[in-house]
């Protein structure tokens, strides 16, 4: 009996090891189809003028719990394209994350969605920039567009605090380089991203 029990134990251990070596499905952002757009209202002598900007190539992988960490760098935005060669004191920050966004979505609910269906989840967004940490809730719409892909958009209007952006030393420097001496109180933003399911080999 003891030998039989030992055999079952070895089989269980072997099965567990096999399960852990199987490829695990994970969701990650497709950088080519993931971006955030923002409308900055430039305040000048001729009145307010809306300007469009984008942060492109959003990338990040979620763990099995759906926790996603998303670093945001200056070189992902169209700012570098518009400015051209940056001054030496600013060039070094283009690769460094200006902020890191962390959130968690329900991967099991995405798996249960049929193609063409969607759901809205209110996600908690934690944004860390330097030593400052902000936490906000954002309703997000997940739409399954294919077997292994889900489009992610904001489910309602979202706007950033323009004065808070100008109060951030790094962002203020970038905005001044772009010619923004004063901006509107609100900066509407829209999310259009694609989550794709991959399997680790």
TrEMBL record:
It comes from the Bacteria. InterPro entries: TTHA0802/YceI-like_sf. This is Lipid/polyisoprenoid-binding YceI-like domain-containing protein. It comes from Billgrantia tianxiuensis.
């Amino acid at each position: 009996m003891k030998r039989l029990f030992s055999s079952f134990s070895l089989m269980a251990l072997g099965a567990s090891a096999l399960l852990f070596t199987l490829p695990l499905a994970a969701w990650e952002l497709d950088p080519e189809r993931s971006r955030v757009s923002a409308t900055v209202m430039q305040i000048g002598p001729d009145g307010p003028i809306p300007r469009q900007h984008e942060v492109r190539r959003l990338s990040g992988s979620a763990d099995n719990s759906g926790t996603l960490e998303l670093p945001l760098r200056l070189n992902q935005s169209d700012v570098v394209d518009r400015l051209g060669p940056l001054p030496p004191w600013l060039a070094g920050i283009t690769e460094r994350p200006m902020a890191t966004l962390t959130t968690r979505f329900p991967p099991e609910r995405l798996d249960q969605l049929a193609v063409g269906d969607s759901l809205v989840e209110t996600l908690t967004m934690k944004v860390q920039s330097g030593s400052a940490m902000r936490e906000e809730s954002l309703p997000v719409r997940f739409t399954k567009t294919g077997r292994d892909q889900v489009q992610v958009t904001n489910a309602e209007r979202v706007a950033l605090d323009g004065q808070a952006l100008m109060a951030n030393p790094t962002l203020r420097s970038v905005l001044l380089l772009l010619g923004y001496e004063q901006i509107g109180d609100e900066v509407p933003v829209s999310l259009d991203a694609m989550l794709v399911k991959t399997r680790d080999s």
